[in-house]
Model the fold of this input.
Amino acid sequence: MALIKIEEKYEYLKDVLLSLLLTGIAFIINAGISIRGLYMDDLLMWSTRRGTGFFKYVFPHEMRKFRPVYWAVTWIYQGIIKNNLEFIVPINILIGAGIAIVIYFFVKRLASSKITAFLLASMFLVSRFSYYDIGQYLGLMEAMAIIFAFAICICLYIYINGQTNRYFYYACVFYFLDCFTHERFVVLFPMLLFAIIVKKGNRIINAIIATAIFIFTNYIRFVALNSFIPEGTGNSKVSETFKLSRFFASIKTEILYLLGINTGPTHLNGIDFRNIHIAVKILIIIGIAAFIIFICKSVYSILMKSERIEFAWIKNILLFLGFIIGSVVSSAVTIRVEMRWLYAPFLFLLLLVAYIYGVDKKITIRKFKNKKIGTSLSRIFHVSLASATLVIIWGFCMLAGDIYYRSYYDKIYLFEGQNRANSLADETYHKYDEDLSNKRIYIIKNDFKLSDFDALEFFRAYDADIREDIVTFIDNYRDIGIVGEDMIVLCEDKKNNEYVNVTDFLKSIKVENIYGHYEDGWTDEEAKFNVMSGENGQIHFEIMYPGELTGNESVEIDACGDKETLDLVSNITYYEIDTTPNTVIPIYMKSNFYMPDAKEQRGDKKLSFILNIKIE
Done:
C-alpha cells in the first residue's frame, strides 16, 4: 500500500479548505437572494407537474420547447422539495458552488496554479451572470446546461490531449443530454468535429458516431416540435424574428458583457455601464486593459519567446475559443440578449485564460531551466510575474465590478416580479402559520396585474387542494364590509414593489372621517364620515353635549339619503340606524349649536358635540 507523503497530504488539505471557502463565498455573495413565492415561468413550470405522471410530464403532447432531460430532473426535484420553496435558492447555491469547485480543480490542471484556479473559480461564483441560476426555480435548467457543456469541454480536452478514446464518447453523451436540457447548446456540435480533426486515430468511426448523434438529436426534436429551428425567447420564433443586423448587434453586446460592460436595456441588466459610479467604471476599464495586455503578452510569448510552438497549444486554445464562440452565437439569434446566457461563455473564457496562463508559465519555466532569466521573482515562483500580475488585476477588477452590478439586481425585471412574489408569500402563507385553508384573500386594485390563473397557482404551490376562490380582486376596501377573522386584505406598495397586509388596520377602522369628525369623538357643527356596518346592520350613535341645553338644540342626520332631525332632550341622546349588514354607510350630520366655551377649533366649523359610535 503506497504511503501518501506529508507534502501531498498538505496539498489535499489546501484543496479541501479552498473548496470549502468557495462554498462559503457562494452563500455570502448570494445572501440577499431568496425564493419564498413563485413567479412567472417558475410558477407556470411548477403548476404543470400537478396531477401529471412522470412520462406525460417528460414527454407532453403539446409543447413549444423540448427539454425532456431537464423535465425529468425537475419532476423528481419538485417531488422531493414539495412545497418547501425556501429550499430552492440554497440548493441552487450548492449546485453553483459544486460547479465552481470542479472549475477550481480543472483550472489548477490547466494553469498549474492554485491561486489562479481559486481566483477564476471565485470569479465564476461572483459573476453577475449567475442571477438566474441562483434566483429562479428554472435556474436548475441553466445550471444543468452549463454542467453538461462544461463536461463536453473537459472530455474533449482530455481526449485531444491523450490516448483515451472513451472520453470522446462521453462527450457525445453529454452533448446529447445538453441538447435536451436546453436547445441552444446544439451549436456545440462543431466542437465534436474539431476534436476528431485534431486528434489522430478513429477519425472515421468517431465522425460517424458524432454525426449520427447530431442527426438523431435533431430528428427527435423535429418529431417532437415539427421544426428543426429552436424557439426564441419571449414566445418568439427564431425563424420569424432573426435578422442579420440584430445578430451582429447581439454579438457585440455579448462581447461587451464578457468584458464587464453592461449594455442594453436596464430591465435586463439592472444598470447601464454609462450610469455606474465613476470609481467602478475606472476599475472595469483597468480590468479590460489588463485582460487585453495579458492576451497580447501571452501571444507574444508563444510566438516569439518559446523555442517552438507546440501543436497542443494551438488546438487547446482553439478548443476553448470554439466553446466561447459557439455559446455566444447560440445566444445571439433571438430577439434580445439576457445576461444569464453569458454565464456559459464566461465559464469558457475563464478556462481559456487559465490555459493561456499555463502555457505562458511553461515557457517561463523552460527559460528558467535553460538559465535564460536571472534571479527574479519569476524564477523564484516559477511564473511570469507580468502574466500573474495582469491576471490578478483583471480578476480583482471583474470581481469588484460584478459585486457592484449585483447591487442593482432589484432593477432586473425577474427580480422585480420575484420580490413581489416573495412579499405576497410573506404577507399570506408565512404570516398565518402556513395555513390558508380557511382564509379568503382580497387584493385591492391589482395594479401589479396578477392574473386569476397566477393568483390561484401561486397558492397551490403551497397547498395543491387550496380552493379556487382563494383570491378576490377588489377596487376598494369598502367592497368587502367588515373584515372578519377568515379574511386577509392586501394592498400594493408600488414604490417599494411589494404587497402590504392591511388586514389588522382595516379591522380597527370602523369610521372613516371625510371632514368634521375626529378620533376622540368630537364633531363639528357639520360633519361627513363613513361607517362600516356590522353583521346585524345596526349602527348606534351616542351624542353627548357637555354644555347647558336651552331646549332648541337639534341634529340633522342623513344616512344613505334617509334624512331625519334629532332633537336633543338631554345631554346624552341615543340614535340608531338599521341598514345593510357589512356595508359602508355614508353619514352626514349638521347641528344648530356649538360649544360656546371651546378653546380650540379643528376645522372650518366650530366643535359641537361628542359622538360615540357602536356597531353590531
Observations:
- The longest strand covers residues 522-532.
- The mean pLDDT is 89.
